[in-house]
Write a structure and sequence with these properties.
Elements: H1 2-24, H2 28-32, H3 49-63, H4 80-93
Length: 94
Amino acid sequence: MTTTMTTHTAAIDLKLRAILRDVLGLDDAQVAGFDADTGLFGHLPELDSMAVAGLLTELEDRLDITIDDDEVDGEMLETYGSLLAFAEAKAAEG
């Protein structure tokens, strides 16, 4: 079971990095360097309020999840780790 979860988590991680790269126009090296504590909203100039809408849409499309408006908050977008945890939880629901 742990191997399956690790593989699932790694797949979500790769997809999330690709989404951030594509939506925000970041380069591969920058996205590859993200760790759980990497700041996102308020730290990346590319991730402004307009980019958040595109990011959420891509998350829904690529991860086949639904994000309700009341689930979106500053904590979810604060760090890469918090966004990854959110994406993993949403993917596990579906």
